[in-house]
Write a structure and sequence with these properties.
about 140 residues
């Protein structure tokens, strides 16, 4: 049974994992805190995302240009959040799909960003093409200041 009050995430950033071969910014996956409180994460939106839709390519370009990609969560963070279960996920992210832009991967059809979404009684790991559009229900997760 999952602990509904445990918001602490632990990520081992000392090991490169073989299943991370397709991650574009592999060195960034090794950066960030090894332990943090999920409640300290910030939801970030591109300015155009707040009032409509914006392509994933535009968001990615903005994060790289502003040099803020390293402050975003990565694939390893999503895996640790997924392990907390649906109760914790719903308490913090309700019905949103949250993305980890540091974990961008090269897929068969181009670049993809990993995300998490709640579905029924589980948290699913998804991959979204950068060619798709994001709106106000699709925040990037970043480490708080």
């Amino acid at each position: 049974m999952e602990n509904t009050e445990d918001f602490i995430i632990r990520v081992d950033r000392t090991v490169r994992r073989p299943n991370y071969e397709n991650i574009i910014h592999r060195d960034l996956e090794l950066t960030g805190p090894s332990e943090y409180d999920l409640r300290s994460l910030e939801k970030w939106f591109h300015r155009r995302q707040k009032k409509g839709e914006v392509s994933g390519n535009t968001i990615y370009d903005c994060l790289k240009k502003d040099n803020t990609l390293s402050n975003c969560l990565g694939f390893a963070d999503l895996k640790a959040i997924q392990e907390k279960g649906i109760t914790i996920f719903r308490k913090l992210f309700t019905w949103e799909i949250v993305y980890a832009w540091k974990g961008i991967m090269q897929g068969a059809n181009g670049l993809q960003v990993p995300g998490l979404m709640g579905s029924g009684c589980e948290v699913l790991l998804i991959l979204q093409s950068l060619d798709n559009d994001w709106n106000c229900d699709d925040p990037a997760l970043r480490f708080g200041k």
